[in-house]
């Protein structure tokens, strides 16, 4: 049964799961990346057979396979996917950043140009569960940003990708899909092979091998984040329904044996009741074994003196998902400084954000919400500044620039700021 402790007996470091690879994982990933760089598609075919039992003639998913996927899912689910797409699009369109120009001084034009990435790669897991929601969440912002070519890589089982993943990819506007998973897929996106083009950025969650591969190729390409096991932190007052709180905690515990589910409450009665409810509900889950391991290893219930005290501790933890299950949650919103996504009130299960509401579910983990943000349209654009000065405008500031440069001991810089004016004399 989950342990109940008082705040102060458990620190943020006791709760956070840092996403650091073991030496064995790091070495294995390095070998896979080298293999793919050297042998390209040949290595990918070999890994597909080894890890996915997939003997493939081609790595790319055909239009015929995508069309067949649409025939295999029911109409109700298709409607749900389209509705989720509309919600995700509506939210992310508000994130569009425009270029700007400043032209308020004679002879000077300054500005910023915002441009989409040419190519982006999206990794979609396909191991212990299939995630069409990840397809929508990671691909729709890229298309809104204007990415020219969006490439999706995802593992196949026996050469077959789950129909919902293919349908979601088509709905989200993915340009090309490849049946490759694991660290080898990340290597292919980072360096390119005969079939898979090299991209500018890789996004999407994955297991420890995928996360480590993203870490190793960063710099060659950009990445969104090093995603760790899923986390949920629930702050609850004494009037919450214990069964509801337990269900919300288990919604993340079932993701992974390393997932973290934490409750901070001001009520000892609720703490006890939630602990009991968790034990009742775990055996009813399809992924009971995973949830059991997660709760036993990383599940915690903490008692706080006040909601404000609970929020203070939550800010130290900086959870991926934060549920504020209290009356009048907007009264506390300004106090929350560090969280990936915030669920306000008693009618906002974390699953609402995972699938349907619209905000992105690719979120910072392991305490990185202290300094990073959910995946967004901004992740798929780059910015260049531009500067224009007329001859007269430069002459007015040239000596000042030269003085600044000389202070730093950079005579060449100083000369470049004055030489135009000198040659006009």
Describe, in plain words, how this protein is organized in 3D:
This protein is α/β, with parallel strands linked by helices. It folds into three domains: 4-19 and 228-358, 3-Layer(aba) Sandwich (Rossmann fold); 23-223, Nitrogenase molybdenum iron protein domain (Rossmann fold); 390-424, no CATH class. The protein is 45% helix and 16% strand. The chain contains 16 helices and 14 strands. It has helices at residues 12-15, 23-39, 41-52, 63-72, 75-92, 132-145, 163-172, 182-191, 208-217, 242-253, 268-281, 288-298, 307-317, 350-355, 391-407, 411-424; strands at residues 4-6, 100-105, 108-116, 119-123, 149-153, 176-178, 201-203, 222-223, 231-236, 260-265, 300-303, 321-325, 341-344, 381-389. The chain has a six-stranded parallel β-sheet, with helices on both faces. Strand 9 (231-236), helix 10 and strand 10 (260-265) form a beta-alpha-beta unit. Helix 5 packs parallel to helix 7 (163-172). The radius of gyration is 25 Å and the shape is globular. The termini are far apart.
Q: Key terms for this structure?
A:
Rossmann fold, 16 helices, alpha/beta, single chain, six-stranded parallel beta sheet, 425 residues, 45% helix
């Amino acid at each position: 049964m989950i342990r109940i402790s008082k705040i102060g007996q458990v620190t943020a470091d006791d709760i956070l799961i840092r996403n650091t690879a073991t030496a064995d994982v790091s070495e294995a990933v390095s070998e896979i990346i080298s293999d793919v760089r050297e042998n390209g598609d040949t290595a990918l075919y070999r890994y597909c057979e080894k890890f996915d039992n997939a003997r493939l003639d081609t790595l790319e998913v055909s239009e015929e396979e995508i069309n067949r996927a649409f025939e295999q899912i029911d109409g109700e689910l298709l409607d749900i996917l389209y509705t989720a797409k509309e919600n995700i699009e509506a939210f992310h369109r508000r994130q569009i950043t425009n270029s700007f120009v400043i032209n308020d001084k004679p002879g000077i034009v300054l500005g910023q140009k915002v441009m989409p990435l040419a190519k982006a790669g999206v990794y979609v897991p396909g191991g212990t569960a299939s995630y069409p929601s990840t397809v929508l969440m990671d691909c729709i912002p890229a298309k809104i940003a204007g990415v020219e070519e969006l490439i999706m890589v995802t593992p196949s089982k026996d050469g077959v990708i789950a129909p919902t993943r293919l349908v979601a990819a088509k709905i989200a506007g993915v340009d090309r899909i490849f049946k490759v998973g694991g660290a080898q897929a990340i290597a292919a996106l980072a360096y390119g092979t005969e079939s898979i083009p090299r991209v500018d950025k890789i996004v999407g969650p994955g297991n420890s091998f995928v996360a480590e591969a993203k870490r190793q190729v960063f710099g060659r390409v950009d990445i969104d984040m090093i995603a760790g096991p899923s986390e949920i932190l629930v702050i609850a007052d004494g009037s919450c329904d214990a069964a509801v709180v337990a269900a919300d905690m288990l919604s993340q515990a079932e993701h992974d044996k390393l997932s973290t589910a934490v409750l901070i409450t001001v009520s000892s009665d609720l703490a006890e009741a939630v602990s009991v409810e968790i034990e009742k509900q775990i055996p009813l889950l399809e992924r009971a074994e995973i949830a059991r391991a997660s709760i036993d290893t990383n599940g915690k219930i903490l008692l706080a003196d006040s909601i404000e005290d609970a929020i203070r501790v939550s800010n130290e933890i900086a959870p991926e998902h934060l549920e504020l299950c209290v009356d009048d949650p907007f009264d506390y919103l300004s106090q929350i400084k560090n969280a990936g996504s915030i669920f306000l009130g008693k009618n906002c299960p974390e699953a609402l954000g995972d699938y349907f509401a619209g905000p992105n579910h690719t979120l910072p983990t392991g305490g990185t919400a202290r300094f990073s943000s959910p995946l967004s349209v901004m992740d798929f654009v780059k910015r260049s500044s531009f500067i224009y000065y007329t001859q007269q405008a430069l002459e007015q500031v040239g000596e000042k620039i030269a003085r600044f440069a000389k202070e730093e001991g950079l005579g060449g810089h100083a000369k470049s700021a004055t030489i135009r004016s000198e040659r006009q004399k």
